[in-house]
Specification:
Elements lengths: L26 H15 L3 E11 L6 E6 L4 E6 L1 H4 L10 E12 L4 E14 L1 H15 L17 E6 L4 H11 L5 E6 L7 H14 L11 E6 L13 H9 L4 E5 L7 H5 L2 E2 L3 H8 L3 H36 L3 H38 L4 H43 L2 H47 L2 H5 L4 E4 L16 E6 L2 E6 L26 E2 L4 E2 L4 E3 L11 E2 L2
Parallel strand pairs: 3-5, 6-7, 6-8, 8-9, 9-10
Antiparallel strand pairs: 1-2, 1-4, 2-3, 4-5, 11-12, 12-13, 13-14, 15-16, 16-17
Helix pairs in contact: 4-8, 5-6
Length: 560
């Protein structure tokens, strides 16, 4: 052990290595010595690098990585320094950081404690990203007109993500609360050199599926990945992925990274979700929300129909008021009817006379043979009609008899029994739900009553009386709030926490302060016991209960 713990321990010399007298150091002593050496040699440095991973915990500190082509340096900026920054730290931003090098012995790591930081320009990755963004924007891949709407109720949802990460578990958990939907996962790598090729192949593969094939074609696609640094998400900025998303015939939702992260696939996709779980909620609506919307639409339909019927009824009443009276409408037709009746009588007489003359001329040519021949033809025609009617009746009866026999053969009591059993099961279910609803409502009302009782007890003035205060009333039972209204001889009733007493104002004081009597002189209010009641008790419903006296009602009064 070294003699001075505050100084850096001396390391053993070469000739001492392997010797029994070599000094021994604890891990903490060695770590402290390294920490002091680094802080002494690099107590003020300026470092230029590109920002990589950025972490903002709830403490308000900022943890980040500074990197170049070959190395990565961990850095930390405390909360007070972070609040003074004039720009927002982002991945890929090239900065110049000023601070001191120190170590974190708990993990055997060295890091830069940043005291100030300023931007130095865009990094290589950010410059490449901006170049690709401008290229695709010039080609029109980010235009809103080419984006496709999402289906309302997709039957099949395709997900392109890693099957082993937490993203797919969160998304499947989100689908559990939504409308029943089939989910197909295309496993890909979401990080690394092969990420872009696999994601592009998955998007094109889903589009190439047949709707009637063994694996159904999805109605909507979701490309999902958790948060990460710019390097971790770089696969989704590759040109092959962006063009595959732009060529997709299926609606595509991009859910790459967290809400603050963005990639080029977010700009070309038909919709961008802030998180993978939110993408699942966007793809499939919630079953309860659909029921609520259906109920709202039904209510709007009923209201619209009622308003429409009321409007038609009002218009009908207005039109009825504009119609002429019934007598006015029938006056002219009555006159025409009277004229037609007069003309009809004259016409009937003329027609009858004319027909009589014709009948007289024709009757001379009539004979029995003509009538007999016509009667014979009528009988033959009637016999033919009767024969055809009998045959038609027999054919119709035969067909209906066959249909009736077939129908009787298909009738079974089992169908009615099945319906009766289903109705009984439904009735039993409704009875159980009704009982449960009654018990739930009864428990809620009981809890509400108990809460109101506690509130009433907390607002009661009896707790105030128990702390040493008293309530003063005059002879009429009204509350006395000031001594100025009291004069000598005024009767009072004073209520304490354990009972009430009767008192009287007997005199006045000579001081200038105090209540003034009716004569204009300061009154001295002295209460002397005129009649003391027994200690009172209070029930739970707010009534005052006094001990029972002989010949008196046990209820002496009610608490005001």
């Amino acid at each position: 052990m070294s003699e001075n713990s505050n100084s850096a321990p001396s390391l053993p010399l070469d000739n001492e290595v392997g010797g029994g007298n070599a000094p021994e150091f604890t891990v903490s002593e060695l770590s402290g010595a390294i920490k002091r050496s680094l802080e002494t040699g690099f107590e003020h440095v300026r470092v230029r690098g590109e920002m990589g991973r950025i972490s903002r915990p709830a403490s308000g500190h900022l943890y980040l990585d500074l990197k170049d082509e070959r190395s990565v340096l961990a850095g930390v900026m405390w909360k007070g320094t972070t609040s003074r920054l004039r720009f927002k730290p982002e991945q890929g931003l090239e900065v110049i950081a000023t601070g001191r090098i120190t170590t974190f012995p708990g993990q055997s790591k060295y890091q830069l404690v940043i005291e100030s930081m300023e931007p130095a320009g865009l990094g290589a990755l950010m410059a490449l990203l901006e170049q690709r963004k401008k290229q695709f924007a010039a080609e029109g891949l980010f235009e809103e007109d080419r984006k496709k709407p999402l289906p309302f109720l997709p039957r099949v949802v395709g997900i392109v993500t890693s099957p082993t990460g937490a993203v797919i578990r969160d998304m499947l958990h989100g689908f559990d609360e939504r409308f029943p939907t089939r989910v197909i996962v295309w496993p890909v790598r979401v990080q690394g050199e092969s990420c872009a090729g696999e994601v592009a192949a998955a998007i094109r593969g889903f589009n190439a599926l047949s709707p009637d094939g063994a694996v159904p074609r999805p109605d909507v696609l979701i490309v999902a990945r958790g948060g990460g640094s710019l390097e971790d998400l770089w696969g989704f900025n590759e040109e092959i992925v962006v063009r595959a998303a732009a060529e997709s015939e299926l609606p595509l939702i991009a859910a790459v990274g967290h809400e603050t992260d963005w990639t080029l696939i977010d700009l070309v996709a038909d919709a961008r979700a802030p998180t993978p779980t939110k993408a699942a909620e966007w793809a499939v609506p919630k079953h309860s929300e659909l029921l609520d919307r259906l109920g709202q639409n039904a209510d709007r339909l009923r209201i619209s129909l009622r308003r429409k019927l009321e409007s038609v009824a009002d218009r009908l009443k207005a039109a009825a008021r504009g119609l002429p009276r019934r007598d006015a409408l029938l006056a002219e037709p009555r006159q025409r009817l009277d004229r037609c009746e007069h003309r009809l009588r004259a016409g009937l007489l003329a027609t009858t006379t004319k027909s009589s003359l014709r009948l007289t001329r024709v009757s001379t040519r009539l004979g029995p043979g003509l009538l007999s021949a016509r009667l014979s033809r009528c009988r033959e025609s009637l016999a033919g009609f009767d024969n055809r009617g009998r045959q038609a009746l027999m054919r119709t009866t035969s067909r209906r008899r066959v249909r009736l026999e077939g129908t009787l053969g298909r009738l079974r009591p089992s169908a009615l029994q099945g319906q009766l059993r289903q109705a009984r099961e439904r009735l039993a279910g409704l009875d159980q739900r009704g009982r449960q609803a009654y018990l739930t409502s009864h428990a809620a009302q009981r809890q509400r009553l108990q809460a109101l009782g506690k509130l009433l007890q907390s607002l009661s003035h009896h707790d105030v009386l128990a702390r040493g205060f008293a309530l003063v009333r005059d002879a009429g039972g009204a509350m006395v709030r000031s001594a100025e209204v009291l004069g000598p001889g005024t009767g009072l009733e004073i209520e304490f926490s354990d009972g009430r007493i009767n008192a009287k104002v007997t005199g006045s004081s000579g001081g200038a302060a105090g209540p003034v009597s009716a004569a204009g002189r300061p009154a001295k209010v002295e209460a002397k016991t005129a009649q003391a009641t027994r200690p009172a008790s209070f029930t739970s419903d707010g009534e005052v209960r006094r001990p029972t006296r002989k010949g008196r009602d046990p209820d002496q009064g009610t608490l005001l």
